[in-house]
Design goal:
The protein is elongated, with a radius of gyration of 30 Å. 43% of the residues are buried. Helix content is 8%, strand content 43%. With 608 residues, it is mostly beta strands. The strands form five sheets. The chain has a 16-stranded antiparallel beta barrel. A four-stranded mixed sheet has the order 1-8-9-7. Strands 3-6-5 form a three-stranded mixed sheet. Strand 26 and strand 27 form a beta hairpin. The chain has three domains: 419 residues, Beta Barrel (Porin); 75 residues, Ubiquitin-like (UB roll), CATH 3.10.20; 72 residues, Ubiquitin-like (UB roll), CATH 3.10.20.
Length: 608
Amino acid sequence: MSGLAIAAMGVPREAIAAPIAPQPQEPLDTQVFSPSTLPSELLPTPGMPQSLTPLDSAAELSPVYVAQQSDPDDRFLQEPPDLTLPDTDEPVLQPEVDPSPPTGLPSQPDVQFPIRTLEVLGSTIFDQQDFAPIIQPLENQTVTLTDLQQAADAITQLYLDDGYLTSRAILVDQPITDGVVRIQVVEGSLAEIQIEGLQRLRQSYVRDRIELGAGTPLQAEQLEEQLRLLRADPLFDNIEASLRASGEVGQSVLIVRVDEASPWFGGASVDNYSPPSVGSERVGADIGHRNITGLGDSLSLSYDRTTRDGAHIFDINYRMPLNPMNGTLALRTVIDRNEIVQSPFDEFGIRGESERYEISFRQPLVRSTREEFALSLGFSHKDGQTFLFNNIPQPFGIGPDEDGTSRTSVFRLGQDYVRRDVAGAWALRSQFNIGVELLNATTNSSPVPDSRFVSWLGQVQRVQRLGDDHLIILQADLQLSPDSLLASEQFVIGGGQSVRGFRQNARSGDNGFRVSLEDRITLTRNASGLSVFQLAPFIDMGAVWNHPDNPNTLPEQTFLVGAGLGALWELVPNLNLRFDYALPLIDLSDRGNNFQDDGLYFSVDYRF
């Protein structure tokens, strides 16, 4: 879509169904979580000469985890999927069946006869109390066939008013015994789903999702909801559907015409969101395919490196939907190779390498264009090692093994919820992390940090539209743990995607919080009315603290707060620039001289 992406810092977009401004507006793309819940860096090695650097923060000394700190959501199993809704409320479904009750009159319509009871058969939606206002005036009365036909039509109208377009109430030919007359309800259903226009994607992908809204009786709103979800699926450019009558009463044929999108996606980026210890400026590229086997499964590859050659990150992701509710299995591998390039520590040949392997499954339990609630279960294993003078194994901080090896095996249980309304959206995420001893994970005697721990990570965000040109983004995230944590599981604050005004990963701890408030002010729109230039005043704050028994100590200043102004510009479609300047409101004693320490951040991102 064109217009400035509201999702800052490369996070998934969540659309709001309907704009409130009178002029054309882009759907709200909520920045679903850009918190500082990233793995922290190791603490200083005891005995390392502190006079070599003005920085007391040991985050500058460990290269093992720094490259993973760029993505704020890297600690979560799976992101909520993109559900950008169409820019128009135009329905997908175009019924071609007659949406009115039959008006034909029976033969001999004026013949009168007494009836005692009028029974309605075949309804699974309404009961006799619902039909009472229609049938009670006729019971124990002398009626005509016209009266009975009008009662049947009124029952049909009851179905139509609730969106059951293909259900009918029929006055069938019958003998009248003991004054009992029966009206038969034929509840509508789909006789067939015809799918046109598919090229590579299998028909079952579309058919199974449509059938979630194609129960008996067939309800137009439920069917429309599933069609809208398909239209929002990135596998499609557009979907149209028509509902036609078949040769049988209550039976319909749904014809779905799809326009498959290009399965290829990717992009390139340049920013200074990397820790200065490995080089603050970085470049990256990624490419992926959304439909590898025709089942809607995706494979993506990404590579990021810093301009000073201090960090190299390879990230491989495979995802496969396993059911029509988009329950998704994900496999991921991340390979990091890092070294300290910041003077004067570059003289010590400090480097690190790590690998992370992850498997997870995310299952939505509630899924609509307005809201989604999902549960996730996953397991991740991370294996890292640090070296001194390039090849001498050396631990940094208290927790890793003597050879600098640190391994974690963690079960993760997640919950996420997104709710949209006409003025904004709520997004909430929660994750419980349980570290275990599997796969030779690091173990130590208490209270030394190791792979045996429990922690909880929570995030909440509200995006609120105020008038035509103001978009308020409020974010908060919190991590709590009753244990001392290894660096890869700690909470980190500082940097262009966290607390601005400070360098990336300025502080880290077992526990922490972060709050951010930003106002996106639209100054320029394109010919379609979409925002292309915004100013964004903001304020960020956060703090960290360790478990009291953690032998790794923290600097005295663990609370950060900064305020400033950002500028967002869509130079051309799909090319987004962001520049931020933040004034640190806390004067850190270990502040360095990088652009990040001066509160300057930039990002250039192109997507296709």
